[in-house]
Amino acid sequence: MVETQRLATLDEVMNGLMRRYKERVPDVQGILNALRREGIIQHDHDIENDHVAFRTMGVPHLGITSLEKIFLYYGYEKRDMYNFAAKKVTAYWYAPPTPRHPRIFISQLRVPELSEATARIIHSYTDTVTSDPVDALDLDNGAAVDAFLHAPLWRTPTLHDYLALAAESEFASWVIYNRYYLNHFTISVHNLPRLNTIAEFNAFVERSGFRLNDAGGKIKVSEDGYLIQSSTVAQMIEAEFDDGQGGTVTHRISGSYVEFAERRVLPEFAGIATPGREHRRDGFETGNADKIFESTYSNQTNRHAADPM
Q1: What is the DSSP string of 132-176?
Q2: Cα separation, 149 vs 147, whole angstroms
Q3: What is this structure's pTM?
Q4: Helix H segments across the chain?
Q5: Averaged over 199-205, what is the pLDDT?
Q6: CA 261 to CA 184: how far, in whole Å?
Q7: How many angstroms separate the first and last alpha carbons of the chain?
Q8: Where are the beta strands (DSSP E) in 30-95?
């Protein structure tokens, strides 16, 4: 059993992540406010957070093997691996220490599989990290861990480098600027008193003025039919880059987004009156996640930016 103090520290870290995420992604509070107006929830904490996700670079001293140390320390258990062949991305999910904590999904870019020019740009930033930064963290200090997850790991990228990375891998360009910033959190729609299917919830989201990622269709369904997901399109943010001449330049880039998940009750538990997490489809699905990734990609953000409401 995970000791009480570690769980309290985990709560502090998660609260810090969500506080800064809400500040940067207005859609989060906008959707929660809309749910209150509909009478679906009374308070933000009425929402169950299905999972949160991070993106990383697969390079020495960083990537999954570094970042996962934080969550393993707090009692998370490493589970299935997922391969996104076309995106050159590997991911794992982590089961939480208690049912009240969200699952964790950590992905990393397989940098050695990229072109030499792209890998060279990435390493020009990440090679400045010469030891695993998590090893230097006091994981019992929630404020320090929260600060680390929002701190730059390398210098501010130049706009030239950002655009060069985006031309080959939009995953790479997102990480080079955002680092470990929380990529998304996920509302468990199946636990809402109403609008508790993805189809109903999507209709509510669009009716409330938010845009959905339609890569692979607005509704993503696992092969077994028991995990149904959707997400908003990432909000664009004004990002400040190095102009390569000692100054700065701003450019609009993809920030973070909100995901929605419906985990259906597994057949063997169909008769249970009040199903819990252990009775529902767990884990993730490569096909679903592959298209959810594209919530930050230009095939979504550019189209929607030009599409008036």
Answers
A1: -GGGGS-TT-HHHHHHHHTS-SSPPPBHHHHHHHHHH-HHHHHHH
A2: 6
A3: 0.94
A4: 4-24, 26-37, 64-73, 116-126, 142-149, 159-168, 170-178, 198-207, 286-292, 298-305
A5: 97
A6: 12
A7: 50
A8: 49-57, 77-84, 89-95
Q: Helix, strand, or coil here: 286?
A: helix
Provide the β-strand partners of residue 237: 253
Using alpha carbons, select from 240, 229, 236, 163 the residue that is nearest to residue 201.
229
Number of helices (H), then strands (E), in the chain: 10, 10
Long-range pairs of 203-208 with CB within 8 A, sequence gap ≥ 24 = 204/34, 204/38, 205/31, 205/230, 205/232, 205/260, 208/30, 208/31, 208/34
**Which of 7-16, 22-31, 89-98, 214-223 bottoms out in mean pLDDT, i.e. has the lowest?**
22-31
Instruction: Compute the distance between CA of residue 286 and CA of residue 270 in angstroms, rounded to an integer.
Output: 25
| Distance from C-alpha of 23 to C-alpha of 20, rounded to nearest angstrom | 5
CA–centroid distance for 79 within its chain: 17
Model confidence pLDDT, tens digit, residues 20-65: 999 888 899 999 999 999 999 999 889 999 999 999 999 999 999 9
Rounded to whole angstroms, how far apart are CA atoms 50 and 55?
17
CATH topology of domain 4-305: 2,3-Dihydroxybiphenyl 1,2-Dioxygenase; domain 1 (3.10.180)
HSE toward the beta carbon, residue 127, CA cutoff 13 A: 7
- Of residues 125, 147, 145, the one with CA closest to residue 135: 145
d(C-alpha 35, C-alpha 239), whole Å:
30
Are 131 and 78 within 8 A, CB to CB?
Answer: no
Of 7, 11, 40, nearest in space to 208 by CA: 40
Average pLDDT across the chain, whole number: 94
**At 309, is the pLDDT very low, low, confident or very high (cuts 50, 70, 90)?**
very low
The backbone torsions φ and ψ at residue 51, rounded to the nearest 5 degrees and listed phi first, read -165, 160
**Identity at 131, one-letter amino acid code:** S
Q: Report how far residue 182's alpha carbon sits from residue 188's, in angstroms, rounded to the nearest whole number.
A: 18
